[in-house]
Design brief:
alpha+beta, 15 strands
Length: 275
């Protein structure tokens, strides 16, 4: 009988490119491939350490001159609705949630394109065609769902979210919605509904991606109670958003090799880095 030893993930660093959140800065990402039999365990483990999934890649910001991007999650047990969030729920009572396997549709792509053209016309996804969109939704090596929100009166798709199911929560990989329905606050509503889904499933967290102090695009996440951010290699409650200064000195960032060495992997496999 032949025995094979598990291969530790190899980590790489992207070339610097303009930051999409903070003007005048450059971003760089630390990433590894997500594949094979251990994909689910690796996704679970690295998500708890500030990584995010994009198709079959896990990544985390590793910028040379800034440490503003902080992974954020909601502690469901500490979450409570604000007055404005209660109003958001009432405004969207006409929507029906439909969670299915991650399968892309033409209606989803049409809504996705409308959303991008209105909100992120100059973003990294601006040129994404229908085939690339299908890959984003369907190429997942882990347990994922596409959660759709449909108007009960018209049958129209108003929003959708690609969601990963982790061992300790839900990760909102990417969400989009009809930008013409701004009064409904659909982005906020989908987060609130995912908190409810997690509560119903007995999962303790909802992972929201990155919160970036100083960024108008990402600042809304600080409005959710029970929010935690991954900083200093640990999760900590976000009590005062102003305590996280968007201007970090380069010397506050650990070298890449040290960052990789501090990553905990399933089965205590040693991480390997490559620049």
């Amino acid at each position: 009988m032949r025995h094979t030893l598990p291969i530790a993930p190899q980590f790489y660093v992207t070339a610097p490119q303009p930051c999409p959140y903070l003007e005048g800065r450059m971003e760089r990402k630390l990433f590894t491939a997500l594949q094979g039999d251990s994909a689910t365990r690796l996704n679970d483990s690295l998500s708890k350490q500030g990584f995010r999934r994009s198709q079959n890649v896990l990544y985390r910001p590793s910028c040379a001159d800034c440490a503003a991007c902080l992974s954020a999650r909601i502690d469901v047990s500490r979450f409570s609705l604000s007055r404005s969030q209660k109003k958001v729920l009432k405004r969207n009572a006409h929507l029906d949630r439909r969670a299915t396997s991650p399968w892309a549709t033409e209606h989803q792509y049409e809504l996705f394109r409308t959303y991008l053209d209105s909100r992120h016309a100059d973003g990294g996804m601006a040129d994404m065609d229908v085939f690339e969109f299908a890959a984003m939704i369907e190429e997942t090596p882990v347990r994922s769902r596409i959660v759709e929100y449909v108007d009960l009166g018209t049958g129209e798709l108003t929003g959708a979210c690609l969601t990963d199911v982790l061992d300790d929560g839900l990760s909102m990989v990417y969400s989009f919605y009809d930008p013409e329905l701004e009064r409904l606050s659909l982005g906020t509503y989908m987060v609130l509904d995912h908190v409810e889904i997690a509560r119903e499933a007995g999962l303790p967290y909802v992972y929201l991606g990155y919160w970036v102090p100083g960024s108008t695009k990402m600042g809304y996440k600080a409005r959710f109670s029970g929010l935690e951010v991954y900083a200093g290699n640990r999760w900590q409650p976000l009590r005062d958003p102003h305590q996280f200064d968007a201007t970090r000195h380069p010397l506050s960032n650990d070298p890449i090799a040290e960052q990789v060495a501090n990553i905990s992997l399933p089965d205590a496999e040693p991480a390997r880095g490559s620049e």
